[in-house]
Amino acid sequence: MKPLIGVGMVGYAFMGRTHSQAWRNVTAFFDLPVTPSMAVLAGRSRERAAAAAAELGWAAVETDWRELIRRDDVQLVDICTPGDSHAEIAIAALEAGKHVICEKPLANTVAEAEAMAEAASEAAARGVRSMVAFNYRRVPAIALARRFVAEGRLGEIRHVRAQYLQDWIVDPEFPLVWRLRKEQAGSGALGDIGAHIVDAAQFVTGQLLTGVSAITETFVKERPLAEDADGLSGGSRTGGRGEVTVDDAALFIGRFDGGALGSFEATRFATGRKNALRLEVNGSRGSLAFDFEAMNELWFHDETEPDAGFRRILVTEPGHPYMEAWWPPGHGLGYEHTFTHEVRDFLAAVAAGTDPSPSFQDGLRVQRVLAAVERSAANDSRWTPL
Amino acid sequence: MKPLIGVGMVGYAFMGRTHSQAWRNVTAFFDLPVTPSMAVLAGRSRERAAAAAAELGWAAVETDWRELIRRDDVQLVDICTPGDSHAEIAIAALEAGKHVICEKPLANTVAEAEAMAEAASEAAARGVRSMVAFNYRRVPAIALARRFVAEGRLGEIRHVRAQYLQDWIVDPEFPLVWRLRKEQAGSGALGDIGAHIVDAAQFVTGQLLTGVSAITETFVKERPLAEDADGLSGGSRTGGRGEVTVDDAALFIGRFDGGALGSFEATRFATGRKNALRLEVNGSRGSLAFDFEAMNELWFHDETEPDAGFRRILVTEPGHPYMEAWWPPGHGLGYEHTFTHEVRDFLAAVAAGTDPSPSFQDGLRVQRVLAAVERSAANDSRWTPL
Amino acid sequence: MKPLIGVGMVGYAFMGRTHSQAWRNVTAFFDLPVTPSMAVLAGRSRERAAAAAAELGWAAVETDWRELIRRDDVQLVDICTPGDSHAEIAIAALEAGKHVICEKPLANTVAEAEAMAEAASEAAARGVRSMVAFNYRRVPAIALARRFVAEGRLGEIRHVRAQYLQDWIVDPEFPLVWRLRKEQAGSGALGDIGAHIVDAAQFVTGQLLTGVSAITETFVKERPLAEDADGLSGGSRTGGRGEVTVDDAALFIGRFDGGALGSFEATRFATGRKNALRLEVNGSRGSLAFDFEAMNELWFHDETEPDAGFRRILVTEPGHPYMEAWWPPGHGLGYEHTFTHEVRDFLAAVAAGTDPSPSFQDGLRVQRVLAAVERSAANDSRWTPL
Amino acid sequence: MKPLIGVGMVGYAFMGRTHSQAWRNVTAFFDLPVTPSMAVLAGRSRERAAAAAAELGWAAVETDWRELIRRDDVQLVDICTPGDSHAEIAIAALEAGKHVICEKPLANTVAEAEAMAEAASEAAARGVRSMVAFNYRRVPAIALARRFVAEGRLGEIRHVRAQYLQDWIVDPEFPLVWRLRKEQAGSGALGDIGAHIVDAAQFVTGQLLTGVSAITETFVKERPLAEDADGLSGGSRTGGRGEVTVDDAALFIGRFDGGALGSFEATRFATGRKNALRLEVNGSRGSLAFDFEAMNELWFHDETEPDAGFRRILVTEPGHPYMEAWWPPGHGLGYEHTFTHEVRDFLAAVAAGTDPSPSFQDGLRVQRVLAAVERSAANDSRWTPL
């Protein structure tokens, strides 16, 4: 029997559900040296947390995350709360010697992210591991894209075109959920989905952004108040309206340290685009294109072959990243397994005693890009170096 | 607490893995009146069955399916073996008063399928339920296609174009696995994947085939022998070659009882097509198109709207079949959840005391189509009525 | 100055317009040893023919095609009439020593086509050239497909999937135009568009059909009468209804002399498909896919390359067939230039004193396939060898 | 007989060829009150101009554009030269009372464009017409997109995503053609193709840009010298290398006067993208997407319909802009007919005595955007109002 590693998860909304699915299934597909045990779920309301735990498969419940960290049956803390609590929970967990996987964006401010990265660095010295949950890195097609770039199949990278397009708040009567409040969410489309394309672009190209110029906009300034609304769906209306304090859309252009130019757009107002995380990369020898709405496909153009053209690689072959574990070719995966792969990689690193990636330091770098975007947007779009 | 229903699964290869995934996850997403308990897995080799049970989450192991049926903790039998054993296991289970879900094709011969349908009919009179596992009916996009036709949004159906294209045996050195032996598999591409498109076409249109004209072919007549090869991947070569005794491809044209014409093609030699179950339906008011390689999309053309065109419906909205249970729009599902939905529907029917669909009778109807295809192909492609 | 070759065109409806466009523009793009002169247009109504000639650029008008053939300024006759007059005109022209390009299908019956092929053969001995106008061979993407197969890039061909889908008579009130009358059109979808996919399939694979099994159907049996209706658009209604005497759809399966299986479908009832001539070819080393609705694209899968997938070749590069003459890459061509290329090839052959392709003999072969389809459909779908 | 209008064209390279094609064919498809006569072609080399005239169908040749303007048989001047000569030729022609159609960008500097717009305005008062040749407005799909926005089918516009991606100079050994020299071309990708997406975005949305923030880049700083190279293809190498003095790529973000945000990218380094003029527009009620590489398709999402999704409208129906004149549905057009439509609209305006669109004033507005992009890029990407 493999050693068990007890997991405590804080939060059980959208991300809590996806992470639970990952913990529940990872060992059915991946042969890991440790076996995760879904030990405890923390949520403020005992009643609701207990219902969620029953549904999602957690053995116990706590109403205070501090208690969760304190438990002996928890060796690993999974943080699925809004961004305003990430720093406090993560730092406490790391100091208590618990491995930490934390949802993105790492924090709501650069200062918090710096403190977290420092805590992670100190913890790592003590063998305690941490990872920020940029799950889209674990889409097999995006992992394959990274491999292609790393192998030089694109040559010198010239262009990155990254968009994350959603439309769930196009209706001005959609209520003022926590994701539209700066104090909880930190920012709007920028931090929620813009963070993903910044990370994906840097991950796939292996280059870091060196500066940006940006504009942001809030199209709908006020929305109906509601309570018990989780991040994506509206709860019950309470009457009255409140101010939207985050961006609806963020557009920026930038430069990478390897010479590439980047164009970025994150918006919740792209009517008809549901979860279109799109990435296109052009290099001197080839190009790549990806759209999460067709997540099992990677489009690759190899300029060096005769009669070249973008080809649709169905990323479901045994040789493709993560795919050895799954179904026969052509039998695609769904969204949730980005988390299964994330958890797999985190557990493998914990068991091997190595630092998983992306680290809190990587998360901090993304946070700095988000902050630079906000500064540029507030400062006449002026070029803002990183 | 909801009542438990004990599940016993026979077989643990490809289909066993997908069904296990469904049993393990169904209650995390669907609110059902009963809770399945993964009680026991049966396989001939105790060692291998035990390893599979541990990996897939089954509590116990049997080496004889008769023992599995006999157990008190088993109220429901899930048959994931090759087609040559379906009839015997299913009939025994039904007679023992166990609900049965059976992989497709229902049987290897019409005679077996008839016996199974009769047993199912008798069992139903005693409140024992049965279902044949045409999982593709539970792709949300295909269920939505059925809804569109049933609502009249396509008008009178004129054409069905159904293809199931794979390429996993294009290489003539791919070994002689059981799926290429008539005595175990019954037929080749015809029964394995042709059965799916016959069922899908009849399900979506609500029409039954009334006759067919067919050709079949075995492109590669001999292949290397191998042992321990499961259905899709080759095991270790044992030296020597053996005869391929099933079809590599089956093409047929037919007529439906509502007046539509159908064109069908099932092949394992469509190089580059991995799991392309494609369905196109043309009616007097509109058309539909689907390809499983992009399983979260349904293409719909509404002739009655101005500036009409095929539109890509991302079948991930709460109002779409099964999708209320899942992630936000645009966060697609993978192959495995066709089984999660299947199990959900079966459990719901069992709990409600209603007959699930597709029934063994439906499976028998498909079997008769497969037999007619083989007869026509053997008889100068002559029209073969059903 | 290059020698002029006088062209006389018979008919000025849809095909007459496309051919005129080709004659008018060919020398602006292709460097040919002869220059076509648009000498004379023949049509039964002098008034209408004169109007068409003015619009389309023809220098003179005749009301009897026999006069057109007789003229000294006509060295080449272009036949754009319905199929019932092809044989008479073509044979007369060839006997008069005029080169002939004749619209497809070559004739309305095999007997006529045989007479035409014989006349063509005799004329060829005297240096008089003839060609049947299967224009889709001259889509650059289809010509490139042929090149790929000829070069062995697909290996051994296993499957051909050919469809020609239109929807212009889905409305039962669309009138009874000549294309729906057997005495003029010979057959319906079969001869009009089915002929194209038979030719395209044989051309691309380099294989000939050896037998077929077929069904045909006329969905709408009666339609409003109309006069002055050309082939595709309805003229003015005259009251009353008449019988549709041709097929609305034809489906057939067949075998090729190189071992491939073929599935064919020609229909005018595929709602939402406007001019979807689709061809998919699977071979042991690769596959091809084409849809005329995206005529500048050829999809090619090369099984021998790593991370293979169907790639979209934009067939607009200088090295692609016919494309040296045109715009820079990515600036696609339209439908009409299939005719420009056809005329180019015909003039080049005439000037070189070689036999152009496809010959009347090729047209006869297609005619025999059409006849076999009709015989099989009338004879219980029985296998009908060629 | 309709009155003739004599056309004199200056330049005969790429644009000269496309315009010639338009003049030669426009009356075969469109019923216009005037008939263009291809009177005279001007080029500096008499020999080459004469060869081009013979090939393209021009009746006479001049070696000095001033002579062309002076001729009595020229009532309309078509300017197809590089941007550095536009102002001089256009102003002289307008002053001589000749109607002028001028290639884009209108000029190489704002000052020149202002002078041209002023000359156009004065000429208009005398009944002399002028138009700048933003041909992509005349892609039927783009004209239909404009119609949809104007009809309110998209609601309030939120986002414009405009890209013009080419790859013809990815190879660093591609020579230093005139399009890479600032003194002739004015700018690089920005003026050549960026001008098109600025115009298309403003045209489709009916909104004007109010400010931009930009970066530009020249990836390859030096290239081989060559002579006789026209704009797109390299001539013969002369030895040595010269400096590239224009941008290879320009990225900018901006705001429109109706509240929309815009993201723009023009590049000649998007490997595998040949002529991908892409436009995506998101509004509160719907969205549009277009890619010139599939020029006969417009993708439209109507948020107000049930089961919404982007639908592929084949813009080949009689009711679509310009399409009444052409082939049956599904028989697409090619690149060249953007010019045929342009010439049609210009002739119609000239005949009707109305001002055609886009005017030189519109061309000036685009020029100001290009200048603002360059200023912003040179000034730390600072926001640059228009």
Please describe what this structure looks like.
Chain A is globular, with a radius of gyration of 21 Å. Chain A has 386 residues and is an alpha/beta fold. Chain A folds into 2 domains: 130 residues, NAD(P)-binding Rossmann-like Domain (Rossmann fold); 196 residues, Dihydrodipicolinate Reductase, domain 2. In chain A, helix 1 links the parallel strand 1 and strand 2. At the A-B interface, helix 1 of A face helix 1 of B. Strand 16 of chain A pairs antiparallel with strand 16 of chain C, so a sheet runs across the interface. Chains A, B, C, D: Pfam families: GFO_IDH_MocA (PF01408), GFO_IDH_MocA_C3 (PF22725). Chains A, B, C, D: Keywords: Oxidoreductase.
Which percent range describes the beta-strand content of chain A? 25-35%
- Assembly classification: homotetramer
**CATH architecture annotation of the largest domain in chain A:** 2-Layer Sandwich
Number of contiguous helices of chain A: 10
The radius of gyration computed from the alpha-carbon positions of chain A, rounded to a whole number of angstroms, is 21 Å
Q: In angstroms, what separates the terminal alpha carbons of chain A?
A: 48 Å
Number of strands of chain A: 17
Class from helix and strand fractions of chain A = alpha/beta
CATH homologous superfamily (4th level) name of the largest domain in chain A = Dihydrodipicolinate Reductase, domain 2
Shape of chain A: globular
Sheet having the most strands of chain A? 9 strands, mixed
CATH topology of the largest domain in chain A: Dihydrodipicolinate Reductase, domain 2
Average pLDDT figure of chain A: 96
Largest interface: A-D, 42 and 42 residues
Highest-level CATH class of the largest domain in chain A:
Alpha Beta
Spatial strand sequence of the major β-sheet of chain A: 16-15-14-13-7-12-11-8-17
Domain GFO/IDH/MocA-like oxidoreductase (chains A, B, C, D): 144-288
InterPro entries (chains A, B, C, D): Gfo/Idh/MocA-like_OxRdtase_N (IPR000683), Gfo/Idh/MocA_oxidrdct_glycsds (IPR050463), GFO_IDH_MocA-like_dom (IPR055170), NAD(P)-bd_dom_sf (IPR036291)
Pfam family, one (chains A, B, C, D): GFO_IDH_MocA_C3
Keywords (chains A, B, C, D): Oxidoreductase
